[in-house]
Amino acid sequence: MTRPKELNPYLSPRAFYGAELRRLREGAKLSQDDLGAQVFVSGAYIGQFETAVRRPQLDISQMFDEIFGTGEHLQRLCKLANEAEPHPEYFAKVAELEEQADTISQFAPMLVPGLLQTEQYARALMRATLPFAPAAQIDKFVSGRLGRQKILQRSTPPLLWAVLHETALRIPASDADVMIGQLDHLLETARSHHRVELQVVPLSEGFFPLMNQNLKLMTFSDAPPVAYMETDHTGQLLDVPTLVDGFQKSYDYVKAVALSPKASLQLIESTVKDLRNS
User: Fold this and answer.
1) Fold classified for 13-83
2) Which of 28, 148, 196, 234 is most buried (most C-beta within 10 Å)?
3) CATH class of this structure's domain 89-277
4) 163 strand-pairing partners
5) Which residues face 201 on adjacent strands?
6) Domain ranges in the chain with CATH number 3.30.870
7) Are 93 and 49 in contact (CB under 8 A)?
8) What mean pLDDT is predicted for residues 23-51?
9) Helices 261-277 and 176-192 sit at what angle, rounded to 10 degrees?
């Protein structure tokens, strides 16, 4: 069972939902396990709602309202929390899984992965890929992306292994300073963070598996692994074991053809030097 922790209910709509759920559960003198049994989930699952780790779900919120006799109270809070999510709808579940993952393995063919982006790089990327989005939406998505990076600052962060194609180092951002700042950030993160590893597939490698796939693989201590693929405006989360295993094998091959972590950092250093001298 996830033990209660102090959580500011006004920190976010999701936190308020969790605080209200805990208040109602304790008022009904139910343990997390007791409530979970009534909605067909574990007590730990209830605890993740209450501590704002897990995104509220409308169908379960409806069952909560029926159990507590609260009309549509938790359903309304669920909708509010989900509308306030700082991620596109298709990515919200992925962001939630990142918070629970033991390992995150990613291949990025053209762009620096979101967990390793600077604010300036993320903003330039959002403006370019969402040219018709209002400024408020850009701000929301950038804030959400940077917020995801907090998992790397935890006392027990996930192991993040990111493989980039050399193209991701050389596609210019809005200006050279933004790209230099981004590459410096990659170097600093890889050197200072014991749970982050970087590799680069050089242009000279030619064709290889996954070269046109933005892939993320995640493993968990208490759940099967998943794979996530993303394209413009959408993404696909996969948990079919044979498919996940196939992507894992392809990812392992990409790691094998990439430069070693040491040589990869040397390539990034060389790229930064070229940008500064251009």
Assistant:
1) 434 Repressor (Amino-terminal Domain) (1.10.260)
2) 196
3) alpha beta
4) 107, 199
5) 165
6) 89-277
7) no
8) 94
9) 150
Strand 159-165 relative to strand 196-201, pairing? parallel
Q: Is 55 helix (H, G, I), strand (E, B) or coil?
A: coil
Report DSSP state, residue 71. Answer: T
* C-alpha R_g of the chain: 21
Backbone angles phi, psi at 238, to 5 degrees: -120, 135
The ranges of the chain annotated as CATH 1.10.260.40 are 13-83
Side-chain half-sphere exposure of 130, counting CA atoms within 13 A: 19
Say which residues have a Cβ less than 8 Å from residue 70's Cβ, sequence separation at least 6: 24, 64
What does the pLDDT read at residue 278? 82
* Phi/psi at 2 (5° precision): -75, 120
Three-class SS of residue 234? strand
Instruction: Check residues 54 and 65 and name the one with the higher pLDDT.
Output: 65
Q: Which residue has the tokens 């250093």?
A: 269
Lowest average pLDDT, out of 57-71, 77-91, 203-217, goes to 77-91
Amino acid at the residue 90? Y
Write out the H or E segment, with its range, that includes residue 150: none
- The pTM (predicted TM-score) of the whole model is 0.76
> What is the C-alpha to C-alpha distance for residues 24 and 64, in angstroms, rounded to an integer?
9
